[in-house]
């Protein structure tokens, strides 16, 4: 099994979770990890919220590898204004056919407002693209530094039949 992790992280929380996920998946097969970097990200909290809430897309400096060589596609980002970030919207748009592939969405979040809405949005988009199973998990920003807890969440929230990560 070969996995691809594509994530966006503005302040590093989601990156830590992505790396923990890579550590777990690496025990079961080959894993590639790719950080989305927008060319046009605003550093204003307000503008970041507005753009995410309005489902804007971002121009990306580079695109991740084609998904055709992977069995499992993992997408991670922070919740911004109850929604995925513009860079993730762009990447999900670019995905063509995920038929026969499994998908795993993960988020980090602060207050938790809109966290489930964000995950539901990502799950629904990946199902529309044909992913056979979509698992997900979420990590609160204060939990990110607790590696054992993050790893437990990853293992607990992955569908058992998706990946045996034991
Ligand atoms: C622009 C912006 C909007 C945010 N909106 C939400 C939100 O709607 N709900 C929430 O629970 N957290 C929200 N947060 C908190 C982030 O989701 C949280 O801090 C996350 O862990 C950041 O991940 P990162 O370090 O990978 O960028 C927001 C943060 C930013 C910067």
Describe this structure in words.
By secondary structure, the chain is an alpha/beta fold. It has a single domain (2-157), classed as Flavodoxin domain (Rossmann fold), CATH 3.40.50.360. It contains 5 helices and 5 strands; from the N terminus they run βαβαβαβαβα. The chain has helices at residues 13-26, 45-53, 86-94, 115-128, 147-157, and strands at residues 2-7, 30-35, 72-78, 102-109, 133-140. A 5-stranded parallel β-sheet has the order 2-1-3-4-5, with helices on both faces. Helix 1 links the parallel strand 1 and strand 2 (30-35). The chain binds flavin mononucleotide (FMN). Flavin mononucleotide binds at residues 9-15, 45, 48-49, 78-82, 108-115, 141.
Write out key terms for the chains shown.
binds flavin mononucleotide; 21% strand; alpha/beta; 166 residues; 34% helix; Rossmann fold; five-stranded parallel sheet
Summarize, please.
Helix content is 34%, strand content 21%. It has helices at residues 13-26, 45-53, 86-94, 115-128, 147-157; strands at 2-7, 30-35, 72-78, 102-109, 133-140. Strands 2-1-3-4-5 form a five-stranded parallel beta sheet, with helices on both faces.
